Amino acid sequence: MSNPNGFVPCIASTWSFSARGNAAAWPALAAGGDPLDAVLEACRVAEEDPAVDSVGFGGLPDAAGRVTLDGCVMRSPAECGSACGLRRHLHPARVARLVMERTPHVMLVGEAADEFADLHGEPSRELVSDAAREAWERWRAAPPTLDAAAAQARDRALRPVDSGDPGAGALFGSHARNETRWHDHDTIGSLAVGADGQLAGACSTSGMPWKVPGRVGDSPIIGHGLYVEPGVGAATATGTGELIMGVCGAFLAVEEMRRGATPLEAARTVVERIGRSYRIEPHHQTAFVVVGPDGTVGAAALRTGFLVAVRTPAGERLEPPGFTLRAD
Ligand code: GLY
């Protein structure tokens, strides 16, 4: 389904739960639609799915029991937007697009971002699902452990691991019901290439479960969770935001592509940089998905257990990253 210019439409999104969003976005993208519409559609599906416990409704709350949602969108350095800390609006990436298209700014935060969304017709709603509230209540009731070895073993078992079942949704809830999983979190990052080779990306997350109220991770920060450079490439991140933000992960990946790296080489470079820059703990995971204007997709992860969902004219696939830094 390439066009006379040789571009092949493609959408690639983090984690297997994104396969359903890719599928929803695909018909319009394949028909020549805007890649930004496609990535927002992929985010919408995850945001509305209560089984996905790291994005949208169903996302796990902060330490105070409140769900706050972050998201961003990007077409180019001159066209990007972000919304952080939304407490009443389910679609942070969509609000981020409104910021991009209807203001001279890039990022809005907190209650003012919710008010901005109200003004622009986004429906206001409850974000905390019953399951998320119950999980928070269990976490709040759980006594902290002082046994470092036990905590390490527990954390290793609790980092997000993709079952490969697109219908499963939960990456945390699939583990034992141990509410120490505040360490573990992830994100939908979605990248698309249009039939004209135009690139776009979006991220959406509820952030780290049980986070300190006010904490914002990489996902809504341009250059950290998402970066798009027309004609060069697009990159998105998932996992522990604190590991991504110190290396400007998505920006670094796209810069590597500007220097001639393939998407896989670019993703690998960032993961290796993270491996050198931080003391990696058992609960840490982070992964990068990188797409070139020709629709080539590459992914790399710090650890095993990550999958990327890809949809092209050849069909849909769920694949492990081409490079994984650590086997543990
Ligand atoms: N990667 C999502 C976050 O750290 O909030």
Describe the structure concisely.
The protein is of the alpha+beta class and 328 residues long. It has helices at 19-30, 35-48, 92-102, 110-119, 130-141, 148-158, 241-245, 249-258, 263-277; strands at residues 10-14, 69-76, 79-86, 107-109, 188-193, 199-205, 226-229, 233-239, 286-291, 297-301, 308-312, 315-319, 323-324.
Q: What's the structural blueprint in terms of helices and strands?
A:
Elements: E1 10-14, H1 19-30, H2 35-48, E2 69-76, E3 79-86, H3 92-102, E4 107-109, H4 110-119, H5 130-141, H6 148-158, E5 188-193, E6 199-205, E7 226-229, E8 233-239, H7 241-245, H8 249-258, H9 263-277, E9 286-291, E10 297-301, E11 308-312, E12 315-319, E13 323-324
Parallel strand pairs: 3-4, 10-13
Antiparallel strand pairs: 1-5, 1-11, 2-3, 2-6, 5-6, 7-8, 8-9, 9-10, 11-12
Bound molecules: glycine.
Q: How would you characterize this protein structure?
A:
This protein has helices spanning 19-30, 35-48, 92-102, 110-119, 130-141, 148-158, 241-245, 249-258, 263-277, and strands at residues 10-14, 69-76, 79-86, 107-109, 188-193, 199-205, 226-229, 233-239, 286-291, 297-301, 308-312, 315-319, 323-324. With 328 residues, it is an alpha+beta fold. Strand 5 and strand 6 (199-205) form a beta hairpin. It is globular, with a radius of gyration of 18 Å. The model is unreliable at 173-184 (pLDDT under 50). The protein binds glycine (GLY). Glycine binds next to strand 8.
